[in-house]
Amino acid sequence: MTGAVASASPLNARLRPAINPWVVAAVVVVPTFMEVLDTTIAVVALRYIAGGLSATVDDGEWVITSYLAANAIILPITGWLIAHLGRRNYFLLSIAVFTLASGMCGMATSLGQLILFRVLQGLAGGGLQPSSQGVLLDAFPPERQGMAMTLFGLAALIAPVVGPTLGGWITDSYSWRWVFLINIPVGLLALSACAITLRDPDYLTAQRTELRKKPFSFDGIGLSLLVIVVVCWEVTLSKGQEWDWLDDPFWRVQTLMILFAVGLVALIIWELRHPSPVVNFRPLRERNFVACCIIIFCAFAVLYASSTALPALLQSLFGYDALSAGLVMSPAGFFAVITMPFVGRALGRGTDARWVLAAGLLTMAVGSYWMSQMNLDISPGQAVWPRVVLIIGLAMCFAPANVAAYLYTPLALRGAAVGLLSLLRNEGGSVGTSLGQTVQERRDQFHSLRLGEWLDPFNPAVRSFLDQASGPFLQQSGDPVAAQQQALQTLANLRQQQASSLAYFDVFWVLAVVMVALVFAVLLMKRSVAEKGARIGSE
After folding, report:
1. Which CATH number fits domain 280-539: 1.10.357.10, 3.30.450.20, 1.20.1250.20, 3.90.1150.10?
2. Same fold for the domain at 1-217 and the one at 280-539?
3. Where are the beta strands (DSSP E) in 152-245?
4. Neighbours of 535 (CB within 10 A)
5. CA separation (Å) from 295 to 105, 299, 328, 434?
6. Is the pLDDT score of 11 beyond 80?
7. Quick check: 161 and 311 in contact, CB under 8 A?
8. Tens digit of each residue's pLDDT (9 = 90 or more) over 37-93
9. Residue of 160, 278, 191, 176 whose CA lies nearest to 227
10. CB 338: neighbour CB atoms within 10 A?
């Protein structure tokens, strides 16, 4: 059936919908933006949520972890769900359930209820990204898929950028409940528009008809293994630093890692042998797709690591409030909107996606390295521009990576490929958040110890500082002992401030190294030009 579908002609005419593709694109990016926004918008409201529901902040983190785990379970099986339910039906069902679950989250009266509704929200939201991306790939002919992925990228990139700022403003101005309730009108509007606009292409209809002729076979073992793998992975990333990773005395992290490793190996072996796998790993046989998976995973890890480290730096060491830190980060989204149409146009004119992708990765490396060279005397503007360069680089990467990933993927495997790439994009964000937090805390300890090596009473510079600092305190209190203690505390505070800043800058340096290393993955890719008349999925 795969060969028949891939060789059917004319392909472009068969995939092109009766409705203008730009209308279809405008409709499907709305629920995608809404879902991606929900992965970050609630982060800044965690303290308010925990306080409002009489829970600790550590317990409140399960609001994020539960959503990410549920989301990750659905993403790789969207291909199977689309094949059996139809993409239009599945997309509409996902929007409806996501909107309903959002309303239930906003009305939750306990942390347990909120976590349950977030799981439901994550299960529904997991199908939105792959479905909308599949719609865009089918709505546009090959030579215009660069612009299609540009539109998808606007939702996938801008949402994480504006999420923390929007969440902080909503929480401060209204209530944390509106972080979830705001999805209701947007979801209802998107549901109505998609119901009117979307239709399944012929190849999906034929695939669904073919499946109906066969006995129904559900891969329950594969789904169970997937749940084990994803839950162990997400909990480890979320709680690993808190539980001290592999040094956890209670063996929680070690147990989760063992279950994850064993479950992943078993999942891959089982799914490759199953005639109707719930998770189809066969798209990974194509090297362009594998290289793009690695690049997208790492690029979004860098995005989320920098998006958590930079505002934390600004709030903890510069004294910014959440809104001010968000305003420093927001201009980058504006430049991403400007950059992506130019990238899409370049791809549409026959530019090899590999070279645009390599340029974007190097640009991200420059932005990350620039942030690693900051200091504690910079102005807000000096923090804005490195972030702008980083996001411009990511905007240059997104569309070419998605074009190159699917260019040689057979149509019959496109649903599975979209689900896998979406999963890796989301998991990259989870890894980046955990990586940034871990590197910052570990390097903070390292720099505190190294700086403390020189802070002893026999150091003339230290002695001079303490003598000068104790003078004002002595005038205020009249107690020489208390004045000396206050001077020592001032020195300790300065040491901790400098150690923390160096730790944050180390995070950005690590991100720059990762981006430079990724350029070598581009060398593994085949020529990636989306030309007019090209046959998608052909070698």
Report:
1. 1.20.1250.20
2. yes
3. none
4. 14
5. 34, 6, 27, 18
6. no
7. no
8. 877 777 777 778 888 888 887 777 788 888 888 888 888 888 888 888 889 999 999
9. 278
10. 10
289 in Cβ contact with 409 (< 8 Å): yes
pLDDT at site 99:
95
- What does the pLDDT average to over 510-522? 93
Q: Which of 377, 419, 399, 126 lies closest to 271, judged by CA? A: 419
pLDDT digits (tens, 9 = 90+) for 240-279: 888 888 888 889 999 999 999 999 999 999 988 888 888 8
Q: What share of the chain is helix, strand, coil (3-state, %, to 5)?
A: 80, 0, 20
Reply yes or no on whether the pLDDT at 156 is more than 80.
no
The number of residues making up the chain comes to 539
CB distance 459 to 506 below 8 Å: no
CATH number, domain 1-217, options 1.10.150.120, 1.10.10.10, 1.20.1250.20, 3.90.1720.10: 1.20.1250.20
Domain borders along the chain are 1-217, 280-539
Q: Are residues 371 and 508 in contact, defined by beta-carbon separation less than 8 angstroms?
A: yes
Contacts of 76 (CB under 8 A, 6+ apart): 226, 279, 416, 419, 420, 423
Q: Whole-model pTM? A: 0.80
Q: Taking the C-alpha atoms of 144, 330, 314 and 361 in order, what is their torsion angle to the nearest 10 degrees?
A: 20
Residues 82-126 pLDDT 10s: 888 889 999 999 999 999 999 999 999 998 999 999 999 999 988
For residue 120, what are the CA distances in angstroms to 81, 163, 178, 389? 16, 20, 18, 37
Give the span between the Cα atoms of 97 and 351, in whole angstroms.
Answer: 40
Question: Cα separation of 504 and 443, whole Å?
Answer: 8
Q: Per the structure block, which two tokens stand in for 431?
A: 């890894």
Closest C-alpha to 179, from 190, 168, 195, 191: 168
Higher pLDDT, residue 142 or 516 = 516
Residue 538 has pLDDT above 60, yes or no: no
Least confident piece of the model among 137-141, 156-160, 184-188, 462-466: 156-160
Q: How far apart are CA 280 and CA 47, in angstroms?
A: 39
Q: Distance between CA atoms of 303 and 362, rounded to whole angstroms? A: 14
